[in-house]
């Protein structure tokens, strides 16, 4: 978790006199994001928890405490294994291991928990994980919905199917009853109403539902049903999106069980329920987005704090040492020589402070005003600004962006991004050929993408890919390389809601893909 006490520092003077310190603006933004996360977490309608890789509860909300009957401190003193029913523990751990191994993006399981009063409660557990930039597991995010009442209803069905159906319809869930051999399905009125249909507007074939399942969810939808038919799961459970009558999609929790089999062991009748979980999924997506934002901000804050603590300490230490030596020096000649060193260290300190100021400026102006800009025109302006450098190295800049392409962007950021990318393309030119830089535009997945491709020396991504956009990271040994340009470019692109990617091979040049929206 990010706290708001991380950035009290000695460089408040970076802002203009009378202005609120820029680092304070960053803190305010982080505080707002954190408060949103806390609110979504703490006041969720279902149990929420962040769990360590060892199974310990790191953070739990009030709903989870109500579900287990334990206080937060009591939960923090135990693991989730301690309150899991032993008959359900191995299945839970198996899914957890598959999640860690990357075999699944998340998992869901119905399991029993021991309540503090000794009773057993049922929970529908959804688990996803958060990794660090190196792929290591940081923690698990668990959502536990209390389904005890639903399980009681299912037990009631064993005694009376009619009574169970009435109770479940009253809860808002729809019921389906599938004859696998004939392909006919009874969909309850609630099932149809969930999608915006009346009872007479939806047929009784299994394809009625299947054809409405979102294309991205179909493979898993059929695979989970098949796994149940093969006896791999005791209950069929799947979450998928279904197209409604008006063309929109709803998230549905689909659950079922084979209740009768043919003589040769094939499923004959399957009984199940449909529950509208769209609201819960929306909250889950919002929470994940908030967690992603906080995680990214935390990484930036950690990187920035490291730069400040290391670089400024180095410069100030050098200044202190030089001043001490000057004070002890006897001859004017030696003092003059030391004064020259002092000037160099002072200049380096000023440069570092300017770099830090640039980074703070980007974060403090995330809501910078956007303007409709003609992309080709700005590329032309950037090449004009670099005319001397382009002419000196006989570089060829090819602008393939159509004249009519516009973007809603910050003019200052766009200019900075273009100058950094074009300058790097020339700076890291190949010694055996004249530099050629091609700028093109396309749309990808509904997003506007600018590509800048050069024929330079390229980048060893296997070796430097993880550090490419880090501050003060250099890779080619150029004397004038500072390791700041790409760091600032990445921050500017992300501040405008985009991202930047690189494709490169050593000796074959590089392509920077800038997602502008």
From TrEMBL:
Its EC number is 2.7.13.3. Residues 33-103 form the PAS domain. Keywords: Kinase, Phosphoprotein, Transferase. It catalyses: ATP + protein L-histidine = ADP + protein N-phospho-L-histidine. It comes from the Bacteria. CDD domains: PAS. One of its GO terms (molecular function) is protein histidine kinase activity. It is an enzyme of class 2 (transferase). InterPro entries: HATPase_C_sf, HATPase_dom, His_kinase_dom, PAC, PAS, PAS-assoc_C, PAS-like_dom_sf, PAS_fold_3. SMART domains: HATPase_c, PAC, PAS. Residues 307-517 form the Histidine kinase domain. Residues 107-159, 236-289 form the PAC domain. This is histidine kinase. It comes from Filimonas lacunae.
């Amino acid at each position: 978790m990010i706290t708001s006490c991380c950035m009290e520092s000695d460089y408040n003077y970076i802002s203009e006199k009378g202005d609120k310190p820029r680092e304070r603006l960053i803190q305010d933004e982080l505080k707002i994001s954190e408060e949103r996360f806390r609110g979504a977490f703490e006041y969720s309608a279902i149990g929420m928890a962040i769990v360590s890789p060892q199974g310990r509860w790191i953070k739990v909300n009030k709903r989870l405490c109500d579900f287990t009957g334990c206080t937060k401190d009591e939960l923090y003193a135990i693991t989730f294994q301690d309150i899991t029913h032993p008959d359900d523990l191995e299945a839970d751990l198996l899914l957890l291991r598959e999640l860690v191994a990357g075999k699944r993006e998340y998992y869901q399981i119905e399991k029993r928990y021991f309540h503090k009063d000794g009773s057993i409660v049922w929970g529908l557990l959804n688990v996803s994980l958060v990794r660090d930039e190196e792929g290591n597991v940081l923690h698990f995010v668990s959502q536990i919905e209390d389904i005890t009442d639903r399980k009681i209803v299912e037990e009631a069905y064993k005694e009376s199917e009619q009574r169970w159906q009435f109770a479940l319809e009253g809860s808002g869930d729809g019921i389906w009853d599938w004859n696998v051999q004939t392909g006919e399905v009874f969909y309850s009125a609630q099932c149809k109403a969930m999608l915006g249909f009346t009872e007479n507007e939806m047929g009784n074939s299994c394809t009625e539902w299947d054809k409405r399942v979102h294309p991205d969810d179909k493979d898993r939808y059929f695979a989970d049903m098949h796994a149940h038919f093969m006896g791999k799961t005791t209950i069929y459970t799947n979450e998928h999106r279904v197209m409604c009558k008006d063309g929109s999609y709803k998230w549905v929790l689909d659950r079922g069980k084979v209740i009768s089999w043919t003589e040769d062991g094939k499923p004959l009748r399957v009984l199940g329920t449909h529950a509208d979980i769209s609201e819960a999924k929306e909250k889950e997506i919002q929470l994940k987005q908030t967690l992603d934002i906080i995680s990214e901000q935390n990484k930036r804050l950690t990187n920035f704090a490291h730069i400040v603590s290391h670089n400024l300490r180095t410069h100030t230490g050098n200044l202190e040492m030089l001043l001490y030596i000057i004070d002890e020096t006897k001859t004017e000649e030696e003092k003059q020589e030391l004064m020259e060193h002092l000037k160099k260290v002072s200049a380096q300190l000023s440069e570092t402070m300017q770099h830090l100021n640039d980074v703070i400026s980007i974060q403090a102006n995330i809501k910078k005003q956007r303007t409709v800009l003609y992309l080709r025109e700005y590329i032309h302006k950037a090449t004009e600004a670099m005319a001397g450098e382009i002419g000196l190295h006989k570089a060829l800049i090819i602008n393939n962006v159509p004249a009519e392409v516009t973007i809603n962007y910050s003019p200052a950021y766009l200019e900075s991004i273009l100058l950094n990318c074009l300058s790097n393309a020339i700076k890291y030119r190949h010694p055996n050929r004249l530099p050629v830089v091609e700028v093109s535009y396309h749309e990808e997945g509904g997003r506007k993408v600018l590509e800048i491709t050069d024929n330079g020396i390229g980048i060893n991504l296997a070796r430097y890919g993880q550090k490419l956009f880090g501050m003060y990271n250099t890779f080619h040994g150029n004397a004038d390389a500072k390791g700041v340009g790409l760091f600032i470019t990445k921050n500017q692109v992300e501040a405008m809601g985009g991202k930047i990617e690189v494709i490169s091979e050593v000796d074959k040049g590089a392509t920077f893909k800038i997602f502008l929206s």
